[in-house]
Amino acid sequence: MAERQKFYLTTPIFYPNGVPHIGHAYTALATDAIARFERLDGKDVRFLTGTDEHGLKMKQTAAEEGMSPQELADRNSAVFRRMEDALDCTYDDYIRTTEPRHHEACTELWRRMEAAGDIYLSKYTGWYSVRQEAYFDEKETEVGDDGVRREPLGSPVEWTEEETYFFRLSSFQDKLLAHYEANPEFVLPRERRNEVVSFVEGGLQDLSISRTSFDWGIKVPSDPGHVMYVWVDALTNYITGAGFPDESNPLWGHWPADVHIIGKDIVRFHAVYWPAFLMSAGVELPKRVFAHGFLFNRGEKMSKSVGNVVDPFNLVETYGVDQTRYFFLREVGFGQDGSYGHEAIVNRTNADLANDIGNLAQRSLSMIAKNCEGKVPAPGSFTDADKAILAAADGLHVLVRQAMDRQAIKHYLDAVWDVVADANRYFAGEEPWAKRKTDLERMNTILYVTAEVVRQVAILAQPVVPNGAKQLLDFLSVAEDARDFAALGETGRLEVGVELPKPTGAFPRYVEPEAADGGKA
RNA sequence: GGGCCCGUAGCUCAAUUGGUUAGAGCCGACGGCUCAUAACCGUCUGGUUGGGGGUUCAAGUCCCUCCGGGCCUACCA
């Protein structure tokens, strides 16, 4: 038996200086959907996420709260982890940059870059922003009315001179451009790639990669007075999670990563700095960096009775995990910006989940329960209509795989729900309830075909709505080991005569809670 | 200043990458059905594809320009 194809994907590691917001949730649930998809498609998936716990901000926040940085990291990292759990994320490993294994990986990566001659000591002077952990040209800064000098994003800067190690990023310009050229889908979507290319074409300056102004970080091996710059530390997590530097670790077989899922705000670090570090250290480059867009709350009024639903935990509590996941993945083109609001979430999830697939399953399965002794009915010969809808369902696997090869999550869902809509039309057009009185065999056939389509749709929906999909598969008595994509198509057809449990509604409608307080925001 | 992306029905988006009368969902109106989660099916309303010009037998798609929105990057001090 051939070894399964490996698939390694990551989220960025989150900075647990504050509480998780909807952007973190979006990244995590999207990455999870991809992970589940590839797993169901037979791959040996490794899904890494975690928290990035070093830096001055952590140290300062900890001081403000009267605790050590490690205590703060422990406390807040747990919150992020709980968020991912609340979203039903199936990460295989939750990395924390304060762990020894990560210190080892960073240290070794640094050593290799140094050995390659790409690191040198020099002095950096300029306006430094603690919040951004970055220097700014004086021209970029501005003194505000309050007399405080700030960088463009508004954080205060102070004049700083420090000795710092530099990475020879400037010498990687041509190699990076050659890599983008040879791998047109290294950065997706296309617009992001264009930005990256034009940025690199504009010339690269060497990058300051160490700090002496604080000590909450990973020490530079040859010079412990320095700690590593945030991005050397943070980006390296992706190889730490694959066992680096122990290349005999079985996990190392997962590197290079198939895709780093990130938000578009951190494209440059992932598409320019990270590959340059790896080239320098002689480590293979990840195959793809996929940048998703931002989500905006378009001033939709959230109901007072449900409170501030923008918080990820509240979203899940208010609408449900499946609903939250489905909404963001179906409504927003992955890679583009999107917006969300109460009404949009309710409309989308009620229409697609409750009305379309939930109701289709319920109406067909309850007919089976009532008219077929609760067993999968035996179909007669198939008509053209039967064959057409079955063929549509059977054809989905190829279609969705094509979409997901480019992380086109929305397209994958579009395709699946097109079939759901077809199935509703089919069911209504064939009128099994009428055939019940005139032609039982025909009724059985229609119910069989519909249930079979529901089976395939449920299997395909698992990555996005794992709970509701599981419920549907349970209603169809589909064996646990027949729920992956290998069971799609003709080979996995429902077995006639199998007993089915009494169905109840999967994907309940969201109904507005009666405004008990009599008013709204 | 240079560069990139976008603007299609009230809303969210399609259109095999120049090829017939620009499609679908949601919303709305009307009708149907009763298996079903106030669900489902059908019909209809709704567009000079932001404006203008050009290339072509043919433009939502290519070129120019203007308007509007977003983003990357650089400069001016």
Question: How does this structure look, described?
Answer:
With 521 residues, this protein is of the alpha/beta class. It is built from 18 helices and 17 strands. It folds into two domains: 238 residues, 3-Layer(aba) Sandwich (Rossmann fold), CATH 3.40.50.620; 140 residues, Isoleucyl-tRNA Synthetase, Domain 1 (Orthogonal Bundle). It has a six-stranded parallel sheet, with helices on both faces. Helix 12 packs across helix 15 and helix 13 runs antiparallel to helix 15. The C terminus is likely disordered. The structure holds one RNA strand of 77 nucleotides.
Task: Give a topology summary.
Layout: E1 6-10, H1 22-40, E2 44-51, H2 56-64, H3 69-86, E3 93-96, H4 100-115, E4 119-129, E5 134-136, E6 142-143, E7 149-150, E8 157-167, H5 173-182, E9 187-188, H6 190-201, E10 207-208, E11 210-211, E12 219-220, E13 223-228, H7 230-235, H8 237-240, E14 259-263, H9 267-281, E15 289-292, E16 295-297, H10 312-319, H11 321-331, E17 338-340, H12 342-371, H13 384-394, H14 396-404, H15 409-430, H16 432-438, H17 440-461, H18 466-475
Parallel strand pairs: 1-2, 1-14, 2-3, 9-15, 14-15, 16-17
Antiparallel strand pairs: 4-5, 4-8, 6-7, 8-10, 11-13, 12-13
Helix pairs in contact: 2-3, 4-9, 5-6, 10-11, 11-12, 12-15, 12-17, 13-15, 13-17, 14-15, 15-17, 16-17, 17-18
The chain binds one RNA strand of 77 nucleotides through helix 6, helix 12, helix 15 and helix 16.
